[in-house]
Amino acid sequence: MAKRDAALDALILKAHARDNRVALVTLYTQAADLADDVDTECFFLTHAHIFALEFDHPSLAGLRARLVAFGRE
Q1: What is the number of structural domains in the chain?
Q2: pLDDT at 9 over 50
């Protein structure tokens, strides 16, 4: 599995600066997918889920299901 890198971190910061919540859902989900451990994965999933909740993003149910699977809802 690839590792999260500075480029992804920079994209997340840029999306925050622009308040681009659609991008933040996608970017935080990508960071979760690249996480090396469950705690880090859930950290990023939680961020993605929070932004997804704000506007009923299409990935909302999938993000919630992933958190529930880890007992982190």
Answers
A1: 1
A2: yes
